[in-house]
Amino acid sequence: MRKPRGSIKPQRNFFLRDTTLVAREILGHYLCVESSGKTLTGRIVETEAYMFRDDPACHASRGMTDRNCTMFERGGVAYVYFIYGVHYCLNVVCGPAGEGTAVLIRSVKPIDGLDEMHRNRPGIKDDVNLANGPGKLTQAFGITGEDNGTDLSTGRIRIFLDPDVMRNKPEVVVAKRVGIVKGSEKPFRFYIKGNPYISRK
DNA sequence: GGGAAGATGTTCT
DNA sequence: GAACATCTTCCCT
């Protein structure tokens, strides 16, 4: 995989911290996926935290099932699930094994491999709508249920850190999560202020 | 540009 | 049977 110029691989500890902190700190960094011999790259601009305690919206809140079991793995793997019979959503598992907490990647700004992303999403005319939503970005990057459980440091889906972003942190807006009913009052959505690639206002 | 409807697999009640 | 961490299309203003 071709990692973004100047980027660095995160330490394992990066994903073992508090989920809201990971959701916030991953903003601005790179999501890379190896697809048909090419590396598709995007910059993460919007996330949501799903906590292991006091969070009824979290899939893990009602215990382990076949569907959500990768959420209970050690932080640093991908939790991919199928929703509404149509879409996949990509999460980054956080915390130590057994907790069941993760960060949902809601939107990315396409950086590299735009041609391939457009092939994955026929009918989309502009670049803004390629990956500005959880279902859109998995389609653009070719992420499916087969990627569930992928190790983010060795698999075809990876996170790389941009040193510029670590030095110069983006201004982050905290808001309520989108598209849920239970637990919707919690301020667990994070996005880069003013970024045009946000899924919803 | 905005609201409503439909798509449709898996899990939970 | 209902709900579900969504998106697109169609029709209206």
pLDDT under 50 segments (min length 5)?
none
Q: Strand portion, in percent?
A: 25-35%
Indicate the structural class: alpha+beta
Backbone shape: globular
Helix coverage percent of residues?
Answer: 10-25%
Radius of gyration: 15 Å
Major sheet details: 8 strands, antiparallel
N-to-C SSE string, H for helix and E for strand: HEEEEEHHEHEE
Number of strands: 8
The helix count comes to: 4
Span between termini = 34 Å
Describe the structure.
- By secondary structure, the chain is of the alpha+beta class.
- 13% of the residues lie in helices and 28% in strands.
- The protein contains 4 helices and 8 strands, in the order αβββββααβαββ.
- It has helices spanning 19-25, 114-120, 134-141, 163-167, and strands spanning 30-35, 38-50, 78-83, 87-94, 101-112, 157-160, 172-175, 189-192.
- Strands 1, 2, 3, 4, 5, 6, 7 and 8 form an 8-stranded antiparallel beta sheet that branches.
- Strand 3 and strand 4 (87-94) form a beta hairpin.
- It is globular, with a radius of gyration of 15 Å.
- The N and C termini lie far apart (34 Å).
- The model has no long low-confidence stretch (mean pLDDT 95).
- It binds a DNA duplex (13 and 13 nucleotides) through strand 3, strand 4 and helix 3.
Topology record:
Blueprint: H1 19-25, E1 30-35, E2 38-50, E3 78-83, E4 87-94, E5 101-112, H2 114-120, H3 134-141, E6 157-160, H4 163-167, E7 172-175, E8 189-192
Antiparallel strand pairs: 1-2, 1-6, 2-5, 2-8, 3-4, 4-5, 7-8
The chain binds a DNA duplex (13 and 13 nucleotides) through strand 3, strand 4 and helix 3.
